[in-house]
Amino acid sequence: MPLFQTIQFNENTKILIWEITESFEELYSRVTLKEKTQRRLDGMKSQMHQRAFLSVRMLIQEMGFTDKDLHYDEFGKPYFDCHNYISITHSYHFAAIIISHETVGIDMELQREKIQRIADKFTDFECDYLESNVTEEYIKKLTVIWGAKEAIFKIRNEKGISFKDHINVSNFSLGESQTKASLHFDNLIKDFDVHYQEIKSDNFEGTFTLVYTFEK
What we know:
Blueprint: E1 3-10, E2 13-19, H1 24-28, H2 35-42, H3 47-62, E3 70-72, E4 78-80, E5 85-91, E6 94-100, E7 104-110, H4 135-156, H5 163-166, E8 167-169, E9 178-185, E10 188-199, E11 208-215
Antiparallel strand pairs: 1-2, 2-6, 3-4, 5-6, 7-11, 8-9, 9-10, 10-11
């Protein structure tokens, strides 16, 4: 399947989402990989992971880049040689990238009931406004919170950062599409704008939450 959705957030920021319906062979035939990337692909044991990996390369090509333009730093954070920032995510049958002139992070998660069982591992500050007795809303809000913290971690990517202890997501409404968050780590304090929305497909069951953050 071609590009699933394009979100032009502003003149400097674009989000592209790919729905992974193609076989490994079809995706592989449509991309050109540098030697280092080919070795990474060959080392992946899961074909779903391989297909997601290749779908990201399809998205990069949609933006006019190639695999040769994409690099990873020592912490695994992707970057281009130019002034554009990039962040990458994939979840089950979707892959997505955000490219911007601003510092950005992105995450995409399938909404699942099991997130309730691990909520205490990544929420603390947020417990002041979360209502755990409203199950569907609770799951949706937890997914936004997790996605926001994951996206922020992708931006900062510093050893020792705890989702629970160092990243706070401000109260928000599911009827809106944005909130604020902050990172307090060692002597560092950073604020972030958080944007979120739901993604659904006619081809697969389940609802996904897409979250992207901008460092202020």
